[in-house]
Specification:
CATH superfamily of the largest domain: Medium-chain alcohol dehydrogenases, catalytic domain
Radius of gyration: 20 Å
Shape: globular
Distance between the termini: 18 Å
Number of domains: 2
Number of helices: 11
CATH architecture of the largest domain: Alpha-Beta Complex
Order of helices and strands: EEEHEEEEHHEHEHEHEHEHEHHEHE
Strand content: 25-35%
Largest sheet: 7 strands, mixed
Length: 329
């Protein structure tokens, strides 16, 4: 076991270039913790927001980004049971993944299907649990019902399309380029539309029989939030998962009253504290993974030294699937 490791450190908030590659002591697990030799880290838009100081919770400095990662357990802290050294797992620790070794609460570990590569394991937890909760736990999606998936070629978008089709739903997918729409179609999307199509609102409504879409997974925010309301069917549900535009959205309650709409926020961190909801999601996802109907879509991979470029490419919408950083490269 080495005494030191390479890790990304953030000491001031800002754009991705505030991240620095440093040599740090290998951490020792405390009570209830395990240490992983990190093989792959899944990068989310939320990670970039945390580095910028724009996430839902305050970023405590200094810190190492990387909220979800996968690797091999190599040390156990006091009181940890049910976890074996040498086991391959994924973690939703919330921070610390961008390093050669990382600590995780044992309670934040997620078993990895044997068929998954390390990159697939790191691409799974945030996107697929979020998609499931958006479609079922909070969205109450039904078989045969239409759902609108925005940013359809991204990590959450590809997960949402796969899960929606596995649940028997019909999908309208929106993305920024024809190449990204082709990815959505390959995953089973029934209707695909460019996000800047001047007639996008009416085309989405028409796709669902002219009455609008019953369920919308809203990730764009800003001025597009109003468009989501306009695309929704009577008694439609809009699940707010993100704010990729990083612009302020405005909501007038009277807009909800007119068509009996429901707007619900979704934050995976707080939902993971709901043991029953987490257990239900895990059971459903395990079955779908085992059937081969759900396969994490791995996007571009980067070495640890290029973490800033990976974050910037994600922010610039140059990527598809889950952006992965591999500390061992």
């Amino acid at each position: 076991m080495p005494d030191t490791m390479k890790a990304i450190v953030v000491e001031r908030l800002g754009p991705p270039d505030v991240m620095e590659l440093r040599e740090l002591p290998v951490p020792q697990p405390g009570p209830g913790e395990v240490r992983l030799k990190v093989e792959a880290v899944g990068i989310n838009f939320a990670d970039a927001l945390a580095v910028a100081g724009e996430y839902l919770t305050r970023t405590r400095l200094p810190y190492t980004p990387g909220m979800e990662f996968a690797g091999v357990v190599d040390a156990l802290g006091e009181g940890v049971s049910g976890v074996q050294v040498g086991g391959r797992v994924a973690s939703l620790a919330g921070r610390g993944g961008l390093a050669e070794y990382a600590l995780s609460p044992a309670a934040a570990l997620i078993p990895v299907p044997p068929s998954f590569t390390p990159a697939q394991a790191a691409a799974f937890p945030v996107s697929y649990f979020t998609a499931y909760h958006g479609l079922k736990t909070l969205g109450h999606g039904k078989e045969g019902e239409w759902v609108l998936v925005q940013a359809a070629a991204g990590a959450l978008g590809t997960a949402s399309i796969q899960l929606a089709k596995a649940l028997g739903m019909q999908v309208v997918a929106m993305a920024s380029t024809e190449e990204k729409l082709a990815i959505a179609r390959d995953l089973g999307a029934d209707v695909t539309l460019l996000q800047d199509d001047p007639d996008r609102v009416q085309k989405v409504r028409d796709a669902a029989g002219g009455k609008g879409v019953p369920l919308i997974l809203e990730v764009v925010g800003g001025p597009r939030f109003q468009e989501s309301l306009d695309m929704a069917a009577h008694r439609g549900r809009v699940i707010v998962i993100g704010n990729a535009s990083r612009e302020q959205a405005h909501l007038r309650p009277v807009e909800l009253m007119k068509r009996n709409l429901t707007v619900t926020g979704l934050w995976l961190t707080s939902l993971m504290g709901d043991a029953e909801a987490t257990r239900e999601a895990a059971q459903a996802l395990t079955q779908l993974v085992g059937s081969g109907r759900v396969v994490p879509q791995v996007g571009p991979t980067y070495p640890l030294s290029e973490s800033a470029r990976a974050f910037q490419d994600l922010l610039d919408r140059k990527t598809t699937g889950k952006v992965i950083i591999e500390p061992g490269r």
